[in-house]
Please model this.
Amino acid sequence: MGLRVPGAHPRVEIKPPVPTIPAPIWRNIKDLQEWEQLHQKRPEGDKHSAAFESLTDGIHSFPGGFVVTTVADAFLNWARKSSVWPVTFGLACCAIEMMATFASRFDVERLGMVPWASPRHSDLMVVSGTVTIKMAPMLERIYDQMPDPKWAVSMGSCANSGGPFRHGYHVVKGVDRVIPVDVYVPGCPPPPESLLNGLLLLQDQIAHFRRTGRRAAPNPKVD
Amino acid sequence: MTHEQAKTLIGERFGSAEVAPVSAEATGKGLVVTVPAADWQSFARFAKDTLGCRFFSFSTAVDWKEQGLEVVAKVDNLDSGLALMMKTKLGPGVSECPSLVPVYRGADWMERECYDMFGIRFDGHPDLRRILLADDWVGHPLLKSYAVDTPHPPYR
Model:
């Protein structure tokens, strides 16, 4: 039951204001250096304590201390790559192959993946199918709801480049115009083996996340 | 009701009328009737009440370029197996057509799609707005004059 205006018609209810969604910050971030700069500029309440910062800096600058920090990075990346949870998000016929990959025969759970039905608990979005212009804002919004660090796999020809619908009127010519993509899986549709290979490549990327230090960026819109 | 009976009835009601040429030719699967746009709704009423075509199958349109648009609707009499294809030419530059929704309730979304894809304004439609494309879409994509590579920011 909403708020009632005293004296007004009893059925008149005041709707709460629609929340405005701020623009995502990842859109302007090109590489890890910018990401770190952003984290240095963030407000005081959002930072680690000064003691923790000086401790890690001290360890890193101590002779031989970089071994500790890189080992810690390697450990964190191992933990990240070993539990990539893909959000269950299917768009077209590729989603059938994606479901087959998630099911028992191909069994991605041995890779630590749990298909999860909420973007807020997920690390990976498998864009499986044709992205229409009408669907692109929803896809972008779901991607924005996923917590960092997050990855995206573009599955199939339609998501890679528009595929057979590239010259149609309503299809986005590649999902990389909407969100940054880490791994492209070719095929129409890719069989589960292909998607598995793509997921393994993604795990490899995650394991070397720190060493490459780059995020995928949306492609320039050229035609 | 057979095709021949239906053809005779159409000829009696619309063929000798004062209006315009109605050509009904029997094909293997049913009748194809071309009526002028002014008779579009009254012919649908006639097809439903007299010919018993109570099932509205589909409605769409054809863009014949310089000859203008043509609206096509198919109605069926499921009891006797009579299939009736109704066509009307709107003429060059015309995009107004009478709506069939007062006769067939099932024509509602079909005509919305027709408006979405061809930009045909159906007079008498209760809720004529886009159904498949986004609300802020510019143009009507199935028209021959629509440029497929029309930029649609921000995604293409």
About this structure: DSSP finds eight helices and six strands in chain A. Residues 216-223 of chain A have pLDDT under 50 and may be disordered.
